[in-house]
């Protein structure tokens, strides 16, 4: 019984460590300016943007225009638009990192350039 418990605990730890390393820059995946998904900072930023957009997007969409005329509306709208752009860029880089190498590793670079174009 002890051996089975120890083995399953070791296996769970290995899986947890492997999952954590997916978003970290590793020697097999060099960091570049186009790789928006590398490192803990990008992961933290992506999650923070998700939380912000979950609150801000409905406010922007459902507030009547008569209440939001002026500089505050434009500033908040630009903030939401910039956040959506950065969120999609980092998120699509996660997709490029996880799924594009399954098709062809040579397509990772062009996929990152394409994602940059989508984010702009």
Question: Strand-residue fraction?
Answer: under 5%
* Amino-to-carboxy terminus distance: 56 Å
Poorly predicted ranges: 20-27
Gyration radius (Cα, Å) is 20 Å
Main structural class: mainly alpha
How would you describe what is shown here?
With 120 residues, the protein is mostly helical. Helices cover 73% and strands 0% of the residues. The longest helix is centred in the last third of the chain and has 33 residues, at 71-103. The termini are far apart. Mean pLDDT is 76; it is low at 20-27.
Quick description:
The protein is mostly helical and 120 residues long.
Key structural traits:
120 residues, 4 helices, mainly alpha
Task: Chart the SSEs and their pairings.
Elements: H1 2-21, H2 40-62, H3 71-103, H4 108-119
């Amino acid at each position: 019984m002890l051996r089975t418990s120890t083995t399953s605990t070791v296996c769970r730890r290995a899986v947890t460590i492997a999952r954590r390393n997916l978003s970290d820059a590793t020697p097999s995946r060099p960091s570049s300016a186009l790789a928006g998904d590398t490192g803990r900072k990008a992961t933290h930023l992506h999650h923070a943007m998700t939380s912000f957009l979950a609150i801000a997007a409905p406010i922007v969409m459902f507030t009547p225009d008569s209440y939001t005329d002026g500089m505050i509306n434009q500033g908040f709208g630009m903030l939401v638009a910039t956040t959506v752009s950065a969120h999609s860029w980092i998120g699509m880089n996660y997709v490029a990192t996880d799924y594009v190498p399954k098709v062809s590793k040579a397509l990772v670079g062009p996929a990152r350039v394409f994602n940059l174009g989508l984010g702009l």
